[in-house]
UniProtKB/TrEMBL annotation:
UniProt xrefs under InterPro entries: P-loop_NTPase
Region (Disordered): 1-20
Provenance organism: Methylomonas rapida
Pfam families reported for this sequence: AAA_25
Protein's recorded name: AAA family ATPase
């Protein structure tokens, strides 16, 4: 119930501070002097930018990201490109074992210890949640007040939303813009390539639209090709070719054998692949399904397989997987008119035979693996 009398004799209640005006700059100020790009990694990563590095499984995308991080944290050139020495943070979606082995391989490549200005998270972060994004930003600020590069590896492992949803991706990018980029750092998101194609990133097209720079890592026989697929305010570099170098680490496994890891060795400008035989989108998807099955269910090749087939340390995938696991994974990406088990079975058989005949895969005794030659 309203009061009968309202007392207006007292002072007016204190008014809140008026909001600061929305910032604007005149065109004359913008053109008064040239604005130079502040490169973290010359020609590739600009301070304060948002970038995407995508590729199919085992194409080396995380190897590139960690290699860049290693060089930036040390302030050393990467393949002749100058760097700005800075603190680097990796928000990792994987365990420490694989990360540690890759860092050991980079120590061998560059002949120096892992940098103390490179920090790796102990768990992934749900960056679609604003509170989590702020928590990560606060933790980074406490660790290194002026980070130069924040790597999110991978997008899928660091968000709980749907990567095919433009609204979810919009929230993910907004949280990066509002909480991570204000730290002054460039952000590099590592992501998977699209289902059935290695030419674009997976998920909503709004991912690419939000990026200042976009890069792809693709397999080309025994090599990996790094390309710049979007350069918003700089000139894209020519595609570069790299070889995967496998080395023994000073650490031993339970059987006393040296653990192994890989790093990327520059091999010059990428060679033209215009005459290369092309696989269909379905074939590519089923080939990717083999990589994913190996990642999840792969086992070491038996002594008999190693004896009969060479190349597991050079041009073959390190592990093999039972064909049943490959088939189950492939059925999830095969779309047919009838969409029955029989139609999927026939589609898988045709693709499996084609991949084998093209030399992209090998099989023995119920197990399959990839060939990168």
């Amino acid at each position: 119930m309203l009061p009968d009398v309202i007392d207006l004799s007292g002072p007016y209640p204190a008014q809140s501070e008026p909001p600061k005006p929305f910032p604007f700059t005149s065109a004359a100020e913008l053109t008064a002097k040239p604005i130079s790009i502040q490169w973290l990694l010359a020609g590739i990563l600009e301070r304060g930018s948002l970038n995407l590095l995508f590729g199919e499984p085992a194409a080396g995308k995380s190897l590139f990201a960690l290699d860049w991080a290693f060089c930036l944290a040390h302030g050393i050139h990467w393949q002749g490109c100058p760097t700005e020495q800075t603190d680097v943070v990796v928000i990792a979606g994987e365990g420490f074992a694989g990360m540690a082995r890759r860092l050991m391989a980079l120590e061998s490549k560059y002949g120096r210890p892992s940098p103390d200005r490179l920090f790796v998270s102990e768990r992934p972060a749900d960056l679609i949640d604003e509170n989590n994004a702020q928590w990560v930003a606060d933790s980074i600020t406490a660790l290194c007040p002026n980070p130069g590069l924040i790597i999110i590896d991978t997008l899928h492992r660091n968000m709980t939303g749907d990567e095919n949803s433009s609204s979810d991706i919009g929230q993910f990018v907004a949280n990066i813009d509002n909480h991570l980029k204000p730290l002054g750092a460039a952000v590099l998101i590592v992501h998977h390539s699209g289902h059935g194609t290695s030419q674009r990133s997976r998920g909503s097209s709004s991912i690419r639209a939000a990026m200042d720079g976009e890069f792809s890592a693709t397999k080309d026989g025994l090599n990996v090709v790094l390309s710049c697929t979007k350069a918003k305010d700089f000139e894209a570099f020519k595609p570069q070719q790299f070889s995967l170098m496998s080395i023994d680490l000073p650490w031993l496994d339970d059987d006393g054998e040296p653990l192994r890891s890989v790093y990327l060795q520059h091999a010059g400008n990428a060679k033209s692949t215009t005459n290369k035989r092309k696989l269909s989108a379905r074939d590519e998807a089923i080939l990717t399904a083999l990589s994913e099955a190996i990642d999840k269910h792969g086992v070491e090749p038996s002594a008999e397989i190693r004896e009969k087939f060479a190349g597991f340390d050079k041009w073959s995938s390190a592990k093999v997987v039972h064909v049943d696991h490959w088939r189950d994974r492939s059925y999830k990406v095969i779309v047919t008119d009838k969409d029955t088990v029989d139609s999927k079975r026939m589609a898988f058989k045709r693709a499996r035979d084609k991949l084998f005949n093209h030399g992209a895969t090998a099989e023995y005794d119920g197990y399959a693996w990839r060939i990168y030659e």
